[in-house]
Amino acid sequence: MTLFGLLSATVAPFVLGGALVDTGWTAALMAGLCGPLPLLWMWLQARSRELVVTRSRVRKRSGILSNRTTELAHRNIRNVQIDQGPIHRLMQCGTLRLSSAGQSGIELTMRDLDDPEAVRDLIYQQHG
Q1: Domain 49-127, what fold?
Q2: Domain spans in the chain, listed from the N-terminal domain onward
Q3: 94-124 exposure pattern, b = at least 16 Cβ within 10 A, e = fewer
Q4: What is the pLDDT of residue 115?
């Protein structure tokens, strides 16, 4: 479910025709707690991931409650893709996708990455 869907589902039962409906203190409390939760979850997801480019490999770590690590050696990287829509181009962010010779599909995906072209150039520079 998208953030907009969550917020509209949380707020819609309490606001009808521009007037707040009296639903009691429990409903108001739930609206106050549920509204910020999706934003907090998105913030936690953004803070709990990292992309590290070393001289020999690229490593992605992500996870809030558990960790998942994906590593690719530079010598094995065969394809680097960058996806940027119009808004992402304005904000200078995008999605970086890496695939290697050993796999048929994309092995490493990093969404909402700041300046993905600079990261791609760094990978190429380290690969030499």
Answers
A1: PH-domain like (2.30.29)
A2: 3-43, 49-127
A3: bbbbbbbeeeeeebbebbebeebeebbeebe
A4: 93
Q: Which positions ≥6 away from 39 have C-beta within 8 Å?
A: 3
Q: Which two tokens stand for residue 86?
A: 């119009």
Per-residue pLDDT tens digits for 45-84: 888 899 999 999 999 999 988 899 999 999 999 999 999 9
State the Cα–Cα distance between residues 26 and 15, nearest whole angstrom.
15
Q: How far apart are CA 61 and CA 6, in angstroms?
A: 27
Query: Which residues are within 8 A (CB) of 123 and not within 5 positions of it... i.e. 6 or more apart?
Result: 53, 58, 74, 77, 80, 98
pLDDT in tens, 100-124: 887 788 999 999 899 999 999 999 9
Pairing, β 57-62 against β 49-53? antiparallel
Give the SS3 label for residue 56: coil
Tell me the per-residue pLDDT of 14-32, one tens digit each, with 9 for 90 and over. 444 444 444 555 555 566 6
